[in-house]
Specification:
Layout: E1 2-13, E2 17-20, H1 22-25, H2 32-39, E3 43-46, H3 53-68, E4 77-81, H4 92-99, E5 106-110, H5 116-129, E6 136-143, H6 153-156, E7 161-173, E8 181-189, E9 197-199, E10 212-214, H7 216-237, E11 247-248, H8 255-264, H9 276-279, H10 286-296, E12 305-312, E13 316-323
Parallel strand pairs: 4-5, 4-6, 11-12
Antiparallel strand pairs: 1-7, 2-3, 6-7, 8-13, 9-10, 12-13
Helix pairs in contact: 3-4, 7-8
Bound molecules: oxa(dethia)-CoA.
GO molecular function, one term: beta-ketoacyl-acyl-carrier-protein synthase III activity
Pfam families: ACP_syn_III, ACP_syn_III_C
Family: Belongs to the thiolase-like superfamily. FabH family.
């Protein structure tokens, strides 16, 4: 018998304000056409004034609990992947815990930028398998609009705000790759690439939150190569290959990265969940948002083999392979 961490429910929340590419034409030397063709993004959501990352996370968590038919009493712990917390501390996870009315269990944040949800999911899987909890809420939530330099056209048109959450529980499996649940994961980072994507402020440097800086083109080239290799590693761990996958649910940074990775894995685009056109790059929220949309639209069904992969600041990158 092998214990498996299985998805029991999923949900997401997007702030009300939809910002089309044309908004940026008013203030920047850019066009809807450039943004669409270079990134695939058509619109994104921005949180309202005063709306925080934990506000988005709580809404997503409630949606996931409802989808699972569970209440906060059924949850043993909360892990939030975010790089845009409400405060330096306490964690967003403990804020969510309070808002859900939980006085039991634990909560903590994971910070691996755009790969954050992959790292959070892998940690949640390990905690569950190790017997530290029976059921966890795993959330990706971001307000990247708060760290944009609105004068930098090469970054501010690319990011958005949102949150996605899933409930992860335990189920007995056989140990075979036909089991439901998380089958394998692969995590990586390489701090030598720090300058490719970073925020130019922080607690122990400037004392201020800072703004996002990115070398888009070199990062693009790293992304396709590293995402393909982490996906292949996760698949190989359980004796599978790219063509076994029913759905790739990738980090949504750029449609050309998504297409390039799918092509290298030998998968057609109709087996890829794409939300970048509507959400932009929501960093750690992008994979749970895309998973939730994939389920909501009836694409991802129980038993499907789902591969998620992401790369971001650090650089940090990785993948999770699971059977829905
Ligand atoms: O989530 C973490 C992971 N993030 C990523 O993986 C992002 C990876 N990078 C990318 O998605 C792409 O590199 C971008 C979408 C950021 C840029 O696309 P690109 O094809 O790599 O373009 P580029 O950076 O080579 O820039 C091409 C040109 C430049 O002008 P020159 O130097 O050729 O005259 C830029 O100044 O496009 C210019 N440019 C813009 N033009 C109009 C940059 N931003 C804009 C803009 N509007 N918003």
């Amino acid at each position: 018998m092998t214990l498996r961490a299985v998805v029991e429910g999923i949900g997401h929340y997007l702030p009300d304000r939809v910002v089309p590419n044309s908004e940026f034409e008013k203030t920047l030397d850019t066009t809807d056409e450039w943004i669409r063709t270079r990134s695939g993004i058509e619109r994104r959501r921005f949180a309202a004034e005063g709306q925080t990352t934990s506000d988005l996370a709580v809404r997503a968590a409630r949606a996931a609990l409802e989808n699972a038919g569970l209440t906060p009493d059924d949850i043993d712990g909360i892990i939030v992947a975010t790089s845009t917390p409400d405060l330096t501390f306490p964690s967003v996870a403990t804020m969510v815990q309070k808002e859900l009315g939980m006085t039991h269990g634990f909560g903590f944040d994971v910070q691996a930028v755009c790969a954050g949800f992959i790292f959070a999911l892998t940690n949640a899987n390990a905690l569950l398998i190790a017997g530290q909890a029976k059921r966890l809420l795993v959330i990706g939530a971001e307000t990247f609009s708060r760290i944009m330099d609105w004068n930098d056209r090469s970054t501010c048109v690319l990011f958005g705000d949102g949150a996605g959450a899933l409930v992860l529980g335990l189920q007995d499996g056989t140990g075979a790759n036909t089991d439901r649940g998380i089958l394998s994961a692969d995590l990586n980072s390489d701090g030598r690439y720090r300058d490719m994507l970073y925020v130019d402020g922080g607690v122990s440097t400037t004392g201020a939150a800072g703004k996002l800086r990115m070398q888009g083109n070199p990062l693009f080239r790293q992304a396709v190569e590293k995402l393909t290799s982490t996906a292949e590693t996760a698949l190989a761990k359980v004796g599978l290959t790219g063509t076994d996958v029913d759905w790739i649910v990738p980090h949504q940074a750029n449609i050309r990265i998504i297409q390039g990775t799918a092509k290298k894995m030998g998968l057609p685009m109709d087996r890829v969940i794409v939300t970048v056109q509507d959400h932009g790059n929501t960093s750690a929220a992008s994979i749970p948002l895309a998973l939730s949309v994939g389920v909501e639209t009836g694409k991802i069904k129980q038993g499907d083999l789902v591969l998620s992969e992401a790369i971001g600041g650090g650089l940090a990158w990785g993948s999770v392979l699971l059977r829905w």
